[in-house]
Design brief:
about 120 residues, about 0% helix, mainly beta, globular, single chain
């Protein structure tokens, strides 16, 4: 089992920055891939940024160059630095994990989820 807890969401104006953090606990072997997904009202949950066990990142095209995903081994957290935020980044952001060490886009492939943290970007 893996427990995930997000923090760091909030409201910011367009062009601003936020840093999300996902505290992970439980079976480290069940965390072959960890990442961030988001879901806006009326839309499907989408993959934002993921990191596999070998520290290889992958990003949605819409956030490339603006978001950075990283693993803080000392704190045992998965962080998402979000810069140059846009109103279309507004969504509930979720931390997710799966045991296999590759990171598909399908949220259904992830076994473990946090409860989410809201990000709101105003224009």
């Amino acid at each position: 089992q893996v427990q995930l807890q997000e923090s760091g969401g909030g409201s910011v104006q367009a062009g601003g920055s936020l840093r999300l953090s996902c505290a992970a606990s439980g079976n480290a072997n069940a965390r072959g891939c960890m990442g961030w997904f988001r879901q806006a009202p009326g839309k499907e949950r989408e993959r934002v940024a993921v990191l596999d066990r070998f520290n290889n990142p992958a990003y949605a095209d819409s956030v490339k160059g603006r978001f950075t995903v990283s693993l803080d081994n000392a704190k045992n957290t998965l962080d998402l630095q979000m810069n140059s935020l846009k109103p279309e980044d507004t969504a509930m952001y979720y931390c997710a994990a799966r045991s296999v060490s590759w990171c598909p886009a399908d949220p259904g492939a992830y076994n473990f989820w946090g409860q989410g943290t809201q990000v709101t970007v105003s224009s």
